[in-house]
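Sample intake sheet
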Amino acid sequence: MYYFKCRDLGWDCSFEHHASVKEDLLPRIRTHFHYAHRIDEIDPDMEKKIFSVVTEQ
């Protein structure tokens, strides 16, 4: 299982999400970024940052 915690990007945010496949995290993260952080597009640099904080357990 792969886990993403928004606070691991340095934001004061309690959002967490998990998926069995790492790439399946992105659709839900995109929605969260849009509504919670007013980020409408995840560019390649942000995607790298996101995957750099994803953990596998």
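Comment: The chain has a mean pLDDT of 97. The chain is about 40% helix and 20% strand.
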